[in-house]
Amino acid sequence: TWGSVTNCKVRGMKLAGILLLGFVSVAFSFYLEFPLTPDDVRWAAKTCTYQFKPDPELRHKWCTWNLVPPIVGLHKCFVKCMLTYINIYDEGTGYVNKTAMKAQFEGRGLKPTNLNLL
């Protein structure tokens, strides 16, 4: 019937859109160079927020960088997602990219300290 064909097309378009967003996100994350610009970080934050779809209260906390206790599970996932997309955390190895972290600090005129603790 026509309705089922239309529903199938809509689902296919949604799937294609999600796959395209994923591909663009991964491609963009490999493009990033340090130091990152505020737009780079904003892109990662919006992408991660879209992925996790938090409730409005949690979304507001993330948009204002209010990640203080009580820490909910999604806070940790959001931070991990952000650090992964901006190439500071490597999910495959589980390590923080100290070179990238140092370049980010120095690119903003700040002196990184205690990177050896990461």
TrEMBL record:
Record GO cellular component, one term: extracellular region
Superkingdom per UniProt: Eukaryota
InterPro entries registered for this protein in UniProt: PBP_GOBP_sf
This protein's UniProt keywords: Membrane, Secreted, Toxin, Transmembrane, Transmembrane helix
GO MF term set: odorant binding; toxin activity
Record's subcellular location: Secreted
Gene3D superfamilies xrefs: Pheromone/general odorant binding protein domain
Transmembrane segments: 12-32
Record protein name field: D7-related protein
Organism in which the protein naturally occurs: Sergentomyia schwetzi
